[in-house]
Amino acid sequence: MEHSPPILGFAAWSGTGKTTLLVQLIPLLRERGIRIAVIKHAHHSFDVDQPGKDSHALRKAGAEQMLIASTQRFALMVEQPEPREPDLWELIGRLDASRTDLILVEGFKAESFPKLELFRPALGKPARYPRDPDIIAVATDEPVSVQTALPVLSLNDVTAIRDFILDWMNERDAVG
Question: Cα separation of 152 and 148, whole Å?
């Protein structure tokens, strides 16, 4: 692969605000010309197709792969023959890397790749950064409570988080 976009995860406990942060962060990165791909792990069954639509009927009839396309977008739905946890690297391989400058991953926190941890001490859940060597920074709503040599960012300062990501991408490009 000629172009290998950087992968940055957002690791946190459920209810920490990963999606909320990404919804605020993506437009700020887009303003800087960064083309974003997102992979999100779901811990439950989900369906993006709607009952009553042709694509849903065709998939339910037995199509293992259903690609629906219009002038504005396309979506590929692939049925898993046996329920299994999704493989992050397989999913990344399905992305069009030529149209992507940065892959943001929500979830997959046990996988080994660079991650930004979102940490809210009030949730009463343990932080991952002391044990996970792939955490490159911590974004928190209580910066004074985080004792680490890693960069500590305020969850309330999305612009600072964007700037951290842009710097990280530039450093990665300079080394790679």
Answer: 8
Which one, of 15, 13, 23, 10, lies nearest residue 106 by Cα? 10
- Strand 152-154, strand 74-78: pairing: unpaired
What is the distance between the alpha carbons of residues 60 and 29, in angstroms, rounded to a whole number? 38
Concatenating the DSSP letter of every residue in 149-176 gives SS-EEETT-HHHHHHHHHHHHHHHHHH-
Q: Give me the helices (H) in the chain, please.
A: 18-31, 54-60, 88-94, 158-175
Alpha carbons 123 and 126: distance in angstroms, whole number: 9
Q: Which tens digits make up the pLDDT trace of 102-124?
A: 999 998 988 999 999 999 999 99
Gap between the Cα atoms of 116 and 76, Å rounded: 29
Contact predicate 36/29, CB 8 Å: yes
Q: Tell me: pLDDT of 44 over 70.
A: no
Contact 34, 101 (CB under 8 A): yes
Q: How far is CA 25 from CA 94, 155, 171, in A?
A: 23, 11, 20
Burial-class residue 155 by CB neighbours within 10 Å (0-12, 13-18, 19+): buried
